[in-house]
Amino acid sequence: MNCTTIHKKNFSFTYETKLTNSRGYHGISWDIMGCRESMKKYLHISPKITTFAAIEITKKKYAMGVSIGFSQKYFGLNTWILANIIQLGTQSFCNRFVDFHIDPGRRLYDQMVMAARSGVANIAEGTSRHSTSVETEMRLLDVARASIDELQGDYFNFLLQRRADVWAIGNPNREYLWKINIDTLQFSTNLFHDAALHILNQKAKYDPWIENENPDIVANAMLILCSRLNRMLESQIKNKLQEFREKGGFTENMTAERIEAKRQQSMAENAPNCPICGKPMRKRMQKKGAMQGRLFWGCCDFPRCNGIVPMAET
């Protein structure tokens, strides 16, 4: 995978020219949207370019490890696309087959539709929180998974009530549905327009089953789609956990940024080196005691190192 960094004026562009094939991100970073014109000017790219596996756009003057990315990256998630297909399929199923004879109080209808909506909404909300809380992102992805589990149970119960056959492994319909892949999203600058077309085009692949006139075929197909989405969400959550282990969370990175800023500030102030460990020192103020308010130099590696130098000695 080739990685290239181009620095122009106020922006730094880092991109890789190969798409990822994971079940999570397609490799499309929507940070590009805010600076597409600048990137077209310097990188000579098309407005429809989708070959950027990772794009980091930061103000060069304030380059930080903590970045606040575009909040609608979920448009490029296979899980979000499939969740939308399940939601549309569930709405169609309930409108056609969950009638007053089997659901006189309309509670089953509401529960199924809302469980499908919860899957879509929690994937979107969780991914939107990625920049500031990976923990919240993982929790909401798990809520989405639980909602799809609930929906899957309703389809399963529907088949049980009808004494219908539940497709076994090896059933031609089941095997074919498992093998249908979701295509890579091709976005232009018309984000919602392109996303809507993409979702409907992907749903059309499943329509022979989820829009079938036989409710048993529809319920079985939705069971398969719910199972696929749950496995994809499990993989996505595991990937986020691994990312957290490697890069840390928002609070952790913010602390690191603050420490680095203090270190740079100390260097600008010609701070002395620590007499114990030799690392740069920072200007500090005594907070209590008889010498409260006194300025002194303290080691930047505190509390692991307690080295101090009185300001008068420098």
Number of strands: 6
The whole-angstrom Rg is: 27 Å
Strand order of the biggest β-sheet? 1-2-3
Strand count, sense and barrel status of the largest sheet are: 3 strands, antiparallel
Reconstruct the topology from this structure.
Blueprint: E1 3-8, E2 11-16, H1 36-43, E3 56-59, H2 78-97, H3 107-128, H4 134-161, H5 172-179, H6 191-210, H7 215-247, H8 250-268, E4 281-285, E5 295-299, E6 308-310
Describe the structure.
It contains 8 helices and 6 strands, in the order E-E-H-E-H-H-H-H-H-H-H-E-E-E. The protein has 314 residues and is mainly alpha-helical. It folds into 3 domains: 3-62, no CATH class; 74-250, no CATH class; 272-313, no CATH class. Strands 1-2-3 form a 3-stranded antiparallel β-sheet, covered by helices on one side. It has a 3-stranded antiparallel β-sheet with strand order 4-5-6. A hairpin with an 8-residue loop joins strand 5 (295-299) and strand 6 (308-310).
Q: What is this structure, in a nutshell?
A:
This protein is mainly alpha-helical.
Brief descriptors of the model:
6 strands; mainly alpha; three-stranded antiparallel beta sheet; 314 residues
